[in-house]
Amino acid sequence: MADLSKHDIILNDISHIETQIAVLRNNFKEALERNKELEGYLNELKKENIELKQKISELEDEFNTSNADSFGSLNLKEKEALKIKLQNLISRIDYHLSS
User: Fold this and answer.
1) How far apart are CA 30 and CA 21, in angstroms?
2) What does the pLDDT look like over 48-85, one tens digit per residue?
3) 42 vs 90: CA distance, rounded Å
C-alpha cells in the first residue's frame, strides 16, 4: 500500500464508487420494474374487486326481489301456517340438539 501514490488511491476509490453506483442503478431499475408489475397487478385486483362488488349487488337485488315475491304473495293464513311450520321445525331441531 505504501507503493501506491495518492493518485492511485483516489483512482481506486473512484473505481469502487463507480462499481457501487452501477450496483445501485441496477437495483433501482429492478425495483422500478417490480413496482410497475405490482401496479399492474393492483389495477387488475381493483377491477376484479369492482366486478365482484357489482356481482354481489346484483345477487342481493335478485335475492331481495325473489324474497319479496315469495313472501309478499302469501296471504295471512299462508304466512301463519308457514310461521307454525318453522316453529315446529325449530322445536324439533332444538329437541335433537338437546338429546
Assistant:
1) 14
2) 999 999 999 998 888 777 766 666 677 888 888 888 99
3) 46
The three grid cell numbers given for residue 18, joined into one nine-digit string: 463507480
pLDDT at 2 over 60: no
What stretches of 4-75 show up as alpha helix (H) in DSSP?
6-72
pLDDT of 17: 97
Burial 59-86 (b: 16+ CB within 10 A, else e): eeeeeeeeeeeeeeeeeeeeeeeeeeee
Q: Please give the model's pTM, rounded to 2 decimal places.
A: 0.53
Q: Report CA-CA distances (Å) from 75 to 72, 89, 90.
A: 8, 21, 23
Kindly give, in sequence order, each residue whose CB lies less than 8 Å from that of residue 12, ignoring residues fewer than 6 positions away.
Answer: 4
